Amino acid sequence: MIRVVRKGSKAAQELPASTDAFVWLRLYQVETQDLVPHGARQPLWWTLRHPVRPLSYHAVHRMFERANSLAGTSATLHALRHTAAFRMAEDPALPLTDVQFVLGHAQLSTTQIYLTPRKQDVIRRVLAHHAEQARRAAQRAVPTPAPGYQPEVLDVLFGRASS
Question: Does the reported pTM lie above 0.85?
Answer without folding.
Answer: no
